[in-house]
Amino acid sequence: MMRKFLGAVLVLMTFVLRASPAAAASPESLIRDSVDVLRAMLNQDDTRDMADVVEGAHAVAFVPSMVKAGFILGGEYGEGLILRKEKGKWYGPSFYNLGGGSLGLQIGAQKISLILVVTNEKGVEAFLSSKTKLGGDVSVAAGPVGRRAEAATDAQMKASIYSYSMTKGLFAGVSLEGSVISISVKRNEEYWKKKISAADALRKPANDKRIRPLVEELGRLAKRAR
After folding, report:
1. What does DSSP say about strands 161-167 and 89-118: parallel, antiparallel, or unpaired?
2. Which pTM value belongs to this model?
């Protein structure tokens, strides 16, 4: 009975989170909000640490607004987009959803912005599958900042995805283990004006005027790398 109850609560929370403003964005507004998030992070002292990770990245993904909420059962949901990087050029975007649930005594709600730095092709593949669990199907870790970044070595930096967050003006790495990535077929179709797979979307050069501001901000971030 308890399992059935918790399952029902999880379904209800997922419905509520999907109905939130974070889940009601258009492709264009997701891009604009991603630009705002990146600009806000560029104003932080530790951004250079993230820039170092991005410099060798295979892709960078954004979730401008992820809602975390809970009462006994916690959950989160957000919509985002990903751009793939190859030989210094950007491709995409492809749109996706990020969500999950966690058991525990959690009361209250929180909204955070996320940037996910994808360090290898296995990480990119996580955004091409219909559903991928972070920490299970693909390794994920809080992005290094500050002293932890300075102490990190190539041997230690093995996660496929590093996550950074911005909440209430604070910039930090954040763990997303247990969260699930799923392709947003609807958003991809809205942006590209046709049915398209995530893989095909990430093969298209990111030179459309709608995505160009985000590519330019990524260029600004690259200049912060050591």
Report:
1. antiparallel
2. 0.82
* pLDDT tens per residue across span 163-217: 998 876 666 777 788 889 999 999 999 999 999 999 999 999 999 999 999 999 9
Structure tokens at 143: 């992005």
Query: Going by C-beta distance under 8 Å and a sequence separation of 6 or more, which residues neighbour residue 181?
Result: 96, 97, 98, 126, 127, 129, 131, 132, 134
Beta strands 161-167 and 140-142, pairing class: parallel
- Other beta carbons within 10 Å of 210: 13
pLDDT digits (tens, 9 = 90+) for 49-93: 889 889 989 999 999 988 765 555 556 789 999 999 999 999 999
Higher pLDDT, 102 or 208: 208
For residues 92 and 206, is the Cβ–Cβ distance under 8 A?
yes
Identify the bridge partners of residue 62 per DSSP, sorted by sequence position.
81, 115
Q: What's residue 109's pLDDT?
A: 47
Written as one letter, the residue type at 55 is E
The 3-state secondary structure of the chain reads CHHHHHHHHHHHHHHHHHCCHHHCCCHHHHHHHHHHHHHHHHCCCCHHHHHHHHHCCCEEEEEEEEEEEEEEEEEEEEEEEEEEEECCEEEEEEEEEEEEEEEEEEEEEEEEEEEEEECCHHHHHCCCCCCEEECCCECEEECCCHHHHHHCCCCCCCCCEEEEEEECCEEEECCCCCCEEEECHHHHHHHHCCCCCHHHHCCCECCCCCCHHHHHHHHHHHCCCC
* Pair of tokens at residue 39: 């600009």
